[in-house]
Amino acid sequence: MNYQEFSKTAELINKQNEWRNRTINLIASENVMSRRVREMAGSDFAHRYAEGHPGERYYRGTNYIDEIESKVKQNLKILFKCNHTEVRPISGTNANEAVFSKFVNKEDVVMANSTPGGGHISHHRIGSLGKFTKNIIDFPLSKDGYHIDLEKTKFLIKSSKPKIIVLGKSLFLFPEPVQELSDICRENGARIIYDAAHVLGLIAGGTFQDPLREGAFLVSASTHKTFFGSQRGIILSNMDVDSWRKIDRGAFPGSSSNHHLDTLAQLAMCTNEFLEYGAQYANDVVKNAQTLGAALDRFGFNVEAKEFGYTESHQVAVNVRKQGGGEKVSKTLELNDIVLNMNMLPHEPLSNHDHPEGIRIGVQEMTRFGMQAEEMERIAQLIKECILDNKSIRDEVNQFRKEYLEVKYSFDDRTQ
After folding, report:
1. Which of 96, 135, 178, 387 is deepest in the core (most CB within 10 A)?
2. What is d(CA 246, CA 250) in angstroms, rounded to the nearest whole number?
3. Strands of the 341-343 sheet, one edge to the other
4. What are the boundaries of each domain within the chain?
5. Closest to 87 (Cα-Cα) out of 277, 247, 281, 273
6. Cα(155)–Cα(192) distance, rounded to whole angstroms?
């Protein structure tokens, strides 16, 4: 019986691999690693521990991971032009936990993006931030809902005296006003934390914004969305050494013990690929998102933020209320092997979270499989045929996807 269950699980894993190769994945929080990096999964590092820092471990037998960890930190400093990097968090939320635990106290006021305004759950009362304070104020938004209202925000900073301002979103179409808020934050004793989970690769590629140079105190992020690494978290900063010691203790032992050495080794390899190909990749991702947004608009969808060019990131947001809402549309597309998620839009009440009006689309994974503007037009057409014309398109999707199975922007074809 146990062996049958073991075999059944292996079968399900294989079915997942086969099915995903037939789908168009537009989940905005996912990406793929290259073939050579994926082959490193399940190395001996998957069994090992390495608490502490390279050269200062609590365990023996860490010579090789010490070298790998030191090198990836060095490369990330080069990539993001920063003085400090923390690579031990095992997810973006884990990285946020390490930060919040050391810089937010029970009575502190914190400003963050609301859920309808795109904010991530770890920034809210029911998430990681809420473990340390309940005094969380939502940023006021401009009329379009995709930008922060600067004047109202500056008034709140002066009147509420937040200790921390958390910028960065989960529904993340446009850069945040880091530079515009940096002076007033400094004058009122507030520090800007920028959660770059979704846009880390765009920042690294120079196509979005540069929060550390614009005035952010630190940047936290996950490493597997627009940054095509293994699933982990990082923290970046140019802060003073004493403040950085707090981050160090927040990461270990504060929010992690062992830090999943096998995926850390994969992250080191992915970072090398990003140093080589990241600028072109990030540029192609943004172009593809803008092309897809314009094509969906042309086909009759209510694409959000049209007046601002739809997007400046990897994401496109679409209001599909007239087509039955985000839950219905996302399920219909999944049945036809197009995978994306339903998503609340800025104008919606929080009570809509289970049945939102919108969908969120991300192009970063399909871009890494080599799709460009022409393919984005084709994807828009397929979505139109499925949702507006009520056609079954799964066979068309599967046939189309067969042409894009090799990961690009990688060292897969390099031998020396």
Report:
1. 96
2. 6
3. 302-303, 315-319, 358-362, 341-343
4. 44-270
5. 247
6. 16
d(CA 162, CA 183): 14
Report CA dihedral (120, 124, 129, 133) to the nearest 10 degrees. 160
Question: Which pLDDT score is estimated for 416?
Answer: 62
Instruction: Round the CA-based radius of gyration of the chain to a whole number and report it.
Output: 22
At 253 the pLDDT is 84
Q: Provide the CATH topology of domain 44-270.
A: Aspartate Aminotransferase; domain 2 (3.40.640)
Q: What is the pTM of this model?
A: 0.96
* Closest CA relative to residue 36, chosen from 213, 265, 345: 265
Could you read off the pLDDT of 308-348 as tens digits, one per residue? 999 999 999 999 999 999 999 999 999 999 999 999 999 99
Q: Quick one: which of 223, 220, 218, 211 has its CA closest to 274?
A: 223
pLDDT (mean) for 24-51: 96
pLDDT digits (tens, 9 = 90+) for 122-169: 888 777 888 889 999 999 999 999 999 999 999 999 999 999 999 999
